[in-house]
């Protein structure tokens, strides 16, 4: 019954249990991570949008380009580097996120950092925890190298 949405729905429809239960669930983790990491994508994206030359947009519209074509051929290529940078940063951080999953308390959500925590702190199995941490590091490095490869192919400056 906690929260504005659950309180309203419970009073309007006489639910006995809260109809929306994000806490302790994968949906809660996804919602929390979206809330935390959206600015990491939006800040570079907004900077990329600010750098678009307005004369290009005006020229496209004067020449009769449909707004969707302007988006696809002028705006999207201009902001692609910023979108790739923000998206890859977000992906790297979400794969290594520990605090949100622990804070939400989603016991069914098993991420690599949660596995390291579980093996090291709860089970004192340090060798397995180190192996999982190594896998996590290799995955992060692989994702970073994939970003660098994609950035090199699209002509993104480092």
Automatic annotation (TrEMBL):
The keyword Cell membrane is assigned to this record: yes
Which positions, given as ranges, span the membrane? 78-106, 126-150
What residue stretches are annotated with the ABC transmembrane type-1 domain?
1-147
What are the alphabetically sorted keywords of the record? Cell inner membrane, Cell membrane, Membrane, Transmembrane, Transmembrane helix, Transport
Which GO biological process entries does UniProt record here? transmembrane transport
**GO CC term (a single one):** plasma membrane
Query: According to the lineage, what is the superkingdom?
Result: Bacteria
Q: Which InterPro entries match?
A: MetI-like, MetI-like_sf
**UniProt keyword Repressor, yes or no:** no
Give the primary localization class: membrane
Topology relative to the lipid bilayer, per the entry, is: Multi-pass membrane protein
Q: Where in the cell is it found?
A: Cell inner membrane; Cell membrane
One Pfam family name is BPD_transp_1
Identify the NCBIfam families for this entry: PRK15050.1
The entry's family comment says: Belongs to the binding-protein-dependent transport system permease family.
Per its record, how is this protein called by name? 2-aminoethylphosphonate ABC transporter permease subunit
